[in-house]
Structures are given as C-alpha cells and as structure tokens.
Specification:
phosphatidylinositol-4,5-bisphosphate phospholipase C activity; lipid metabolism; 492 residues; alpha/beta; single chain; 18 strands; 4-stranded parallel β-sheet; 15 helices; hydrolase; globular; 31% helix; EF-hand-dom_pair
Length: 492
C-alpha cells in the first residue's frame, strides 16, 4: 500500500494499479497447467472447451499458441502465465462474437441503426460551432445515421447547415456533403442514412438536389417507385446513401406551426435520471408537446411556389418521413402500400409507450421510428436508449458529443455485429401477433439467472447478475449491452 498527505492533516492510502494477473486468473491457470507449470496444447484445448465454451477448441487453442509465439511468450512446453493473461485480456477474447455474424438480408426495419442527432455540432446545442469534423468523427465510429439541418444562407443564394434559431455558427452544406462522400463507408459498407431537416425554398432545393447528385453520384440510392411496400435489406443497400426527409407535398397539407414555448426546466444531472440500473429506469413523462425544430412561417407566395417543385427533389427521397395525422393512434396505423419513417421527441415517445406500446411495436416491424433528444438538452446530453430499443425503435438518435453513461451504452451496443452500425432486432420484437406482442412493462417470472465475472488487467473483478429474463427475451440481447457498459465504466 502507498499513501500521500492531504492538507497536511490526512493521509490517503491506495493500492497502485498493476498489470499482474489477478489471483483468480492464477488459480485458473494453475488448474489447467501441466506439472511443469506450462499450459500445452492439450491443456489449452481443455480450457477452451470447458471454460470458454469454444465450439472448435482445437482451432482456438492453436490460434492462441501461434499468437503467443508472435509475442515471444511461448515456452518450449506451452504458454506461460503471462501469455495466458495476455490472451484473456486481448481483443481476441472479446465478449462479443468476432466480426459480422448476423443475417443482413432482412428488411432495413428489422435492425437497430447507429444514429446521430444534430451531427454537425461541435459542442452544445445553442452556441457551439457547426462543422463537418463531427460528421467525419461519427462516420469513423461507425454511425450510420447523420442528421443535417439545411437553411438558406444570409443572402439566400447558398445552403448552410446549422441549428436553426440559435447562436450556432453555420457550415456550408457542400463541405458536409464532401466529408460524407469521403468517409461514408470508411468503417462500414452498410447503408448510410442522411436525415434532412429541410428549411429551403424551391430554388435552393433544386440546388441541394444538384449538389447531392454531383457529389454522391452512383452512391445515392434512388428507388424505382415512390411507394415502397417493404424496405430493402442492408445487404441490398451496401455502399449506398439514402436520403430521408418529408416529401415537398407534405408541407402543403400541414397547418402553420408557431414556435413552441418550452417551459420545461433542464432538470438535474443526467446521472440522476438513470437510477441504479439502466434496464429498470422508469421514463419521465412530459405533458407538453414539442416539435423537433421550429418551422418557418410561410407566406402564401411560397406555398404556391412549392406546388411546382421539380420531381428531382422528390425522387431524391428514398425514405419519406411520415406526416403526423390526427392523434398518435392514427399516425401509428401501418400503411401496407408504403413504408416510411416517423420521428418523435423523447418525451412524446415516452408518453406514447404508456398507452400505445403495442401499436409502436407493430409500426416498427415494417417502418422506421426515429427518437431524438428533447429540445432542452442544451448541453448535448442524452437519454436512456434502452427504452427506445425495447419498443423496436430503430433510429435512437444521440448527441455524439461528450462521454456520458448513455453514450457509452450506445457505443457498446453497436460494437456488436462487427461494429458496422447495424444490429439485428431480437425475434420477439418482430412477432406482432396479438397474443405474442412483447410487453417491456410486464412482470414475468425469472427463467434464467446469469452471473458474469469480468477480470480486468489491473486486478478489478466485477460480478454482474441479471435476474429478469422472460420467455421472449434472449439473454444475449440485454447482457451484451450491460456487459459492454460495465467494461466501459471499469476501464475509464
């Protein structure tokens, strides 16, 4: 033990971090090592089969021996304790299955998608700079959903990207598009979805269409028909960029929306909303409505002009955003002739799950549901993503700035399946038969108790018990998220 003085009065004792194997690992090694103190091929195969559960223990053991030889950790009769520890703490012993291992031929709506919110902001939502660099960083992390808010420039002859009606400084749209073109598939070959918040007039829409066609070229996915009954699969859409926004005709039918006066307080720190366990967090319910972005007041001349928009802009939209019709029940009714995307703020979504949980799960079987942070998250904080995932929401949009716990969970989730930004939904979220629909709020009997021990290189040991699995809920789905979250926290 070491100690140091604080304020001349107190001494703090601490044990320094160590790269030595923990006592538990030493016991495991001693159990399987031979009499000569080394773990040979036969002993390693036994360990791989009995402890690691490897289907092909022979190949796994041989790989460990070869890797140990490369690092000069191989003894004449087998691997040493240091080599054994090196393997267990390496990426080759990841808790996730290596590489891409899920079926990628199902419709796009059958996958959770790594999605960003206000992807161009460098910091907070009110005064930070807009730049193409956060977009680049997000794409390099495997994000597959990028959001751009497009507005006319000050002289109305160019297009800027910025958070409207705030003090954020703009960035030119063409810079963002060029960055997207360069890095779109740097980390994943699967489709990239660009969500546009469109505040442009007809002339600038035509300019936007021309920019995208010129910069993206054949990378743009353009459907053969305006009405898509089923989304193509991620495999079919490899190396393609999809644009999602409201078709121009939707604007003609919408009433004027005055700017909301959001009186909700920011609330406490983000950690206070999580409670002791992420899966058991009860969602906050906010009684007021809030639009994602305040809409422009449109005069009559502009509306008349929009009726003559060129078809090119409409053809650019491969995932149409659905118009909200009447109440939420009507909005969530599935259209068998056309699929699309619906966006809800986090508080509207949380309130909707109280009375419309079944409708949401039915809707997300064939359509995309995007959830975005409430407007009062000025510091670019985030919410609990598990609530959205448990109801089948594919695009749980997150602010990618910062390092808070919710973002760790998001990043941990999408390290699965090779880190390509697409994770297949569990089958129970795709079963929409009336008597089989998954109910996240249901209290069901425990079917299995899992205990996970995580041994860290500095001597940490973490025991995690998950005690609530039901007949619809396979352990790997929730365990994967929580285990990765734990690993993130312990390694900070």
């Amino acid at each position: 033990m070491y100690n140091y003085r604080i304020c001349y009065c107190f001494r703090l004792r601490y044990r320094p971090a160590s790269n030595e194997p923990s006592d538990g690992l030493k016991e495991v090694y001693k159990k399987y090592a031979g009499a000569d103190g080394a773990m040979g091929l036969e002993q390693l195969q036994q360990f791989m089969s009995e402890v690691q559960g490897e289907a092909d223990a022979v190949a796994a053991a041989q790989t460990v021996l070869e890797r140990s030889k490369e690092f000069r950790l191989l003894k004449r009769k087998g691997i040493s304790l240091d080599a054994f520890f090196h393997y267990l703490s390496s990426n080759e012993n990841s808790p996730l299955l290596p590489g891409l291992h899920q079926d990628m031929t199902a419709p796009l709506s059958h996958y959770f998608i790594f999605t960003g919110h206000n992807s161009y902001l460098t910091g907070n939502q009110l005064t930070s700079d807009c730049s193409d660099q956060p977009i680049r960083k997000a794409l390099l992390r495997g994000v597959r959903g990028i959001e751009l808010d497009v507005w006319p420039s000050s002289n109305h002859d160019d297009i800027n990207v910025l958070h409207g009606r705030t003090l954020t400084t703009p960035v030119k749209l063409i810079d963002c598009l060029r960055t997207i073109r360069e890095y779109a598939f740097a980390s994943s070959p699967y489709p990239l979805i660009i969500t546009l918040e469109d505040h442009l007039n007809t002339t600038l829409r035509a300019k936007l269409t021309s920019m995208m066609n010129e910069i993206f070229g054949d990378l743009l996915y353009v459907p053969n028909t305006e009405h898509i009954e089923t989304f193509p699969s991620p495999e079919d859409l490899k190396m393609k960029i999809l644009v999602s926004t409201k078709p121009p005709t939707e604007y003609l039918e919408e009433p004027k929306m005055p700017r909301d006066k959001d009186t909700e307080a920011q609330g406490g720190a983000e950690d206070e909303a999580w409670g002791e366990e992420i899966l058991h967090q009860k969602p906050e319910v906010f009684e007021h409505k809030q639009s994602e972005h305040y809409q422009d007041e449109e005069d009559h001349d502009d509306i008349v002009e929009r009726t003559h928009e060129a078809a090119d802009y409409r053809h650019l939209i491969s995932i149409p955003a659905r118009k909200k019709i009447g109440g939420l029940t009507d909005t969530l009714k599935t259209d068998t002739n056309q699929v699309g995307r619906l966006s809800l703020s986090e508080q509207v979504f949380e309130k909707a799950t109280i009375h419309h949980g079944n409708e949401i799960i039915r809707f997300t079987k064939n359509n995309l549901l995007r959830i975005y942070p409430r407007g009062t998250r000025f510091a670019s904080s985030n919410y609990n993503p598990m609530h959205g995932w448990m109801y089948g929401a594919q695009m749980v949009a997150f602010n990618m700035q910062g390092y808070a716990r919710s973002l760790w969970v998001m990043q941990g989730m999408f390290r699965a399946n090779g880190g390509y930004g697409y994770v297949k939904k569990p089958d129970f979220l795709l079963d929409t038969e009336e008597d089989h629909i998954f109910d996240p709020k249901a209290e069901l009997p425990v079917k299995k108790i899992l205990k996970v021990k995580v041994f860290m290189g500095d001597g940490w040991r973490f025991d995690y018990s998950k005690t609530h699995f039901d007949r619809y809920s396979p352990p790997d789905f929730y365990t994967r998220v929580n285990l990765l979250r734990t690993l993130h926290i312990l390694t900070m």
